[in-house]
Amino acid sequence: MAKDEDPNRPAALWMDAWRGVLYANARVLQVAEPDLIATAGIPLSWLDVLAQLYDAPGNSLRMQDLQQHSLFTRSGITRLVDRIEAAGLVRREPVVGDRRGVLVVLTPDGFGKHQAAFAAHLPIIEREFGRRLTPDQQRAVAGALAAFWRNDGAGPTD
Amino acid sequence: MAKDEDPNRPAALWMDAWRGVLYANARVLQVAEPDLIATAGIPLSWLDVLAQLYDAPGNSLRMQDLQQHSLFTRSGITRLVDRIEAAGLVRREPVVGDRRGVLVVLTPDGFGKHQAAFAAHLPIIEREFGRRLTPDQQRAVAGALAAFWRNDGAGPTD
DNA sequence: TGACACTATCTGTCTTGTCAATCACTTATC
DNA sequence: GATAAGTGATTGACAAGACAGATAGTGTCA
User: Fold this and answer.
1) Distance between CA atoms of B27 and A152, rounded to whole angstroms?
2) d(C-alpha B71, C-alpha B90), whole Å
3) N or C end: fewer C-beta atoms under 10 angstroms in chain B?
């Protein structure tokens, strides 16, 4: 590979950390996504939506909240929810005080599918990711990267 | 969020580490990709290809090598290379000993575009990722996740 | 209440990614 | 050297994503 000896690429510490994040994410998902489709019958973008609704109060969120918190879909939430709704896993409801808004609600089927998909997904992540790290490494990575999902927008950006 | 108190989701250490990887990747790229398009005029998938060719001996790789090492494109390398070739950044050449194969070679334009895009890309990654971690955290993350891009397939999977 | 700016979601259209089938070439075996 | 199996890359049909503009509803201010 000979990247480390290239004078044009100063090997800063954070660059190796970023490369690690990039590769870990890509390599794990390259295995986990086909597996999820094979075992649970849904892609990761669906599980992402279902998991958000599962975690949300009332198992429901508005379209824009779904979009903002999404990890895999930057745009196109409308069509994505269309598909998941057509599969019967979520349902659209009007928002009480705001007739522009749409509330996406997890159906019982969607609840069950989330449970099943999540249960099938976890062992794969553990095998492909968790087991490759020592407990100390797990702790270190979790601590270092927690800012990205806790504050989620804020940070020491100055 | 109240996820940590949910009895259905045992909060294993590696799960928080994985969540960190997932969110860090998504949040940083959500900023970096539009920025790269705005400043360099190419999407990340193109930079991925250009960077691989830049790092490769002879600034060239075969299609399948490009595909296997790719971080963003699991399939569809043919079409992706079509577009990059149409932009004049790479060129296809026959492989000497194997007339089935195709060698994708970085053109001088592609070389320059890589330099420019990479130079524009780095500061964004530093701002969105590097600066959010202390040097100790950078070292820890880099060390813990190095296995994903060094061995790239092996590991303590038993 | 009428005009205006703003917000939330959807639709049309184009681009990009995915999957199976195919073509061209190579290697192994007889 | 002919035939069969395997490999590398492309193609066509379809699904999904991206982006701009449209539609409908809200809130404010005169």
Assistant:
1) 8
2) 18
3) C
